Amino acid sequence: MFHDECGIFGVSGNVDAARLTYLGLYSLQHRGQESAGIVTWDGETAFQHRAMGLVSGVFSEEVLDRLPGSVAIGHVRYSTTGQSQLVNAQPLLVRFQGGPLAAAHNGNLVDSSSLRAGLEAGGSIFRTTTDTETILHLIADAYSRRGGRTTADITDVLTEALAGVRGAYSILFMIDGCLVAVRDPRGYRPLCFGRLESGGWAVASESCALDIVGAAYEREIEPGEILVIGPEGPKSSRLNGEEGPKSFCIFEYIYFSRPDSIIRGVSVDGVRMALGRALARECPADADIVISVPDSSNSAAMGFSEQSGIPHAIGLIRNHYIGRTFIHPRQSLRDFRVRIKYNAVRDTLAGQRVVVVDDSIVRGTTSRQLMGMLRRAGAKEVHLRVASPPIRFPCFYGIDTPTREELIASSSSVSEIAEFIGVDSLGYLSHEGLLASVPPPIETYCVACFDGSYPHEEAHLAGSEVGTFQNKDAGPTGRETR
Ligand code: AMP
Fold first, then answer.
1. What 3-state DSSP class applies to 65?
2. Rounded to an integer, what distance in angstroms lies between the CA atom of residue 457 and that of residue 88?
3. Is 178 a catalytic residue?
4. CA dist., res. 133 & res. 147, Å (int)
5. pLDDT at position 82 over 70
6. Mutate which of 80, 471, 473, 479 to test ligand 1's pocket (most atoms within 8 Å of Cβ)?
7. What distance in Å separates the CA atoms of residue 230 and residue 13, rounded to the nearest whole number?
8. pTM greater than the 0.85 cutoff
9. What is the H or E stretch that residue 120 is in?
């Protein structure tokens, strides 16, 4: 089993569907940089283009011209565990009894290997190693059980197909010429939609992607909701009648989503500012300047500065143009992987007592190298403040994390981590501080990466061998996930 971090975007009812989807994917690039794809439907035929690489490299005018139609779904993907072949790139497109069927999935199912084994025992053939393909089989099965094209209703088919599926899924389907958006009943991953100024509708993982295409934000797709957007516009129904517990991924606020997105009705930037303020209250530091580890902790550093009254400064600069591979120097250069991405601003740091705010510590290796860089630039004291609690447990719901053993906080105390990273002091935000900074109710969040309370038992039993996190300094074969 492997984990995907992904972004999804779809359009219905606009002749420029492919181009709008391309733009939407551009805004979701931070959610996955490994492959990108778009599938469209022109009323008769489905068209597909997928390739490894960034959105800017995967699509060109010529490629977009070959994707006609007024319905489109798109996907950006970042996967782990070496399963990154093109065949796994999404959207997946298949042909079944009901015509073309395409899916773009963000999330991770917890029981897909048993579902898959069951399907294979019944004769199903799989072309990919994604759990998304499992869902396509389940849909085809449900479709034929419901009498096929003439009698089957999409909502009923999807409700039946997804009844036994557990885990995280925000999915866009292209089925029966409609765009269909579905969010799992616990609502792990975000999904929202809006009305396009130029006509039709757009659905996106994050609202920042609605802004770029000129779509007015309508609302979130609710956990357990099925939204069918056909020629008559959106029609909403529920996967299963009952409202169950919710498990929205709190890490979307901490690190993963873009700060200009609105999630659960509030700005991600606003939440990160609040995390920074709470951190300053809980773990104050005597210092001259506050700096961030750009870009994901910028807002939290601003919040820390605001609360503490310590001036905010730019102490680290991030190179945004690194790309996927780089040539190493012949002689080994210390901390090269971090060096290629960050550089210290010497004049700002020299002789200063510095508070560094980061959004999270995963393995601790990036922090360790960054702190060394700050000291070499002349920082007199370095106080690291982390705008989330220690990450002790791997994620099974769509965020890429390393095995439990590789998570530094799973086996080391805060003082041991401080020593490993080489800081004068280290402070983490508490669970309470985290939960007080996000929109209530607090019991609607998945916080398993911090406390191990997995919403599904199976995930816990799946053990710690899952996941092959490669952090942001991961080198030539590593991936950027910001
Ligand atoms: P490290 O502690 O060296 O493993 O890396 C910590 C850094 O990785 C932090 O600055 C985070 O911004 C970033 N980070 C947190 N979660 C992830 C993730 N799932 N993928 C990539 N980078 C991440």
1. helix
2. 27
3. no
4. 22
5. no
6. 471
7. 7
8. yes
9. helix 112-121
* 38: Cα within 13 Å, side-chain hemisphere: 32
What is the reported pLDDT for 335? 79
Q: How many CB atoms lie within 10 A of CB 357?
A: 28
Q: Is 150 left (phi over 0), alpha (psi -120 to 50) or beta?
A: alpha
Work out the average pLDDT over 97-109: 93
Question: What does the pLDDT read at residue 129?
Answer: 86
Specify the length of the chain in residues.
Answer: 482
pLDDT tens profile 322-344: 766 667 777 777 778 899 999 99
The alpha carbon dihedral of 403, 405, 406, 410 has a sign of positive
Pocket around ligand 1: residues whose beta carbon is below 6 Å from it?
Answer: 255, 293, 296, 358-367, 399-401, 471-472, 481
Centre of ligand 1 from the C-alpha of residue 388, in Å: 12
Asked if 278 and 433 touch (Cβ cutoff 8 Å), the reply is: yes
Phi, psi of 4 (to 5 degrees): -115, 140
- Over residues 353-358, mean pLDDT: 98
User: How far does the centroid of ligand 1 lie from the alpha carbon of residue 361, in Å?
Assistant: 6
Counting DSSP H helices and E strands in the chain, the numbers are 18, 23
Q: What pLDDT shows up at residue 482?
A: 28
Element (H, E) at 385: strand 381-386
Measured CA to CA, the distance from residue 19 to residue 217 in angstroms comes to 19
Q: What is the pLDDT of residues 89-101, one digit of tens each?
A: 999 999 998 899 9
What is the predicted pLDDT for the residue at 85?
A: 80
DSSP letter assigned to residue 380: S
State the amino acid at position 133 in one-letter form: E
Query: How many A from CA of 1 to the centre of ligand 1?
Result: 21
Q: How far apart are CA 39 and CA 480, in angstroms?
A: 25
Spacing of C-alpha 104 from chain mean position: 13
